[in-house]
Each structure stands twice: as C-alpha cells, then as structure tokens.
Amino acid sequence: MADVFYKANYEIKPLLEFVFLADWFYDDKNRGNLVKSPVELLVGLNRQFYIAYQNPDVLMQFQRTLGQVLFKPPNVAGWPGGRSWIDSSSLMYRMKIPSTILNAGFIDFTGKATPEDEAYLASQKKQQLNVIKKVQAVPDWNRFLQAIPIKTTHQEIAEFMLEPKLNKGVIDEVNKSADIKSTVIQIVSTPEYQLC
Q: Coil, strand, or helix at residue 128?
C-alpha cells in the first residue's frame, strides 16, 4: 500500500482503488470485526429504514443511554471505541433498540451516566435515572421493502444485512420467520448486526 501511494505521488485515488480491488480486503477474516459505535448503529438504522421521529429528542436519549453523545466526547481523545461499546448490559440494550424503533415501542432509558448526570445523581442520592418513553418512530417500510427483489430468500436478506458470515443459529432463526418484515427485525436485533 505504501508503494502504491508513493508511486502515485501521494494521490489517494490509486491507493483506494488498490485497497478496494484487493482480494484480501474482502476476506471473511477481515469482515465484521469492528463494533459499531452507538451513533453508527443509530444512523445506520435511520438510513436503512428511512425513519422519521415524531420527537427527535429520543435520539439524544439513545445517545446518552449508550454513552456517545455527538459533540460531547469524554475528553480530547474522544471515545475509546471498539469493544468498549459493548458490555453485559449494553449489548442487550443495543439488541433491543432496533426492534423497539421499528415497532414504535416503549423503551426504558437507563444506561451509563454522563459526567453531568453523575453530578446530578450524586446530589439526588439515586443510582440511575429511569425514563420510560414511547419511541414515536415511523420507519418507511414500503420504501425499504421495495428495494428487496421479489424472490429474495430470508437467508439472502440476512447475508446482505450482516457483515460476519452467517452461523447456523442465525440461518435457522431467519428461516423460521413468517414474513420479510419479521425477518428484518430479527436480523437487526442480533449480536452480528452490532458489527461492521
């Protein structure tokens, strides 16, 4: 890569072409290794399903709960990223968010406290702030489903939507789903969807 970059007089286009056309770039071992940040997860859902929020403040609440509020990093180095986004409590919460948003359900916003919240919590002598809100999200299912070719199988949809190679458990679950909408909600609620 360094040789390509140097020989191209530091032009980025030849370097990107080299990388994106290389077989090793698409190897299974190099796919699905990065944990999506909370913002990547939320933005990905919003773009993929064309979601409109009746109350956009709920997105800020998701960010606070997941520990990544845009433009409010914990320090000048930013967020630690990677595997630090997932722990025993956040993984279950992250897996619940897509189905809650796509079904316009209720969600309990209990999560990691920001430094500002910690000061408030200390003054109130409480452990956590519990807020239960209706998400009030409206995904455009028609627009999403129109992009899926008619005879696409549930497994092909899962292979397209998930970066890591599908394991038997995911294949069995998506093949049990009655319709495409249920399949898609099931796919975005898997641990594999947390990876990119």
A: coil
Closest to 89 in 3D by CA, of 118, 74, 110: 110
Nearest to 94 by CA among 133, 181, 36: 36
Contact 42, 62 (CB under 8 A): yes
Domain residues for the domain of 65 are: 53-138
**DSSP of 153-164, one letter per residue?**
-HHHHHHHH-SS
Element (DSSP H or E) covering residue 15: helix 12-21
User: What is the mean predicted confidence (pLDDT) over 67-81?
Assistant: 91
Give Cα separations from 135 to 13, 60, 65, 128 (angstroms): 42, 12, 14, 20
Q: In this predicted model, which residue has the larger pLDDT, 115 or 178?
A: 178
Its pTM stands at 0.75
Tell whether the model's pLDDT for residue 44 goes beyond 80.
yes
Between the alpha carbon of residue 107 and those of residues 62, 72, 118, 132, 173, the distances in Å are 10, 23, 21, 6, 24
Record the tokens describing residue 162, joined without a space.
Answer: 């998930």
Position 157 in a domain: no
Question: Total structural domains in the chain?
Answer: 1
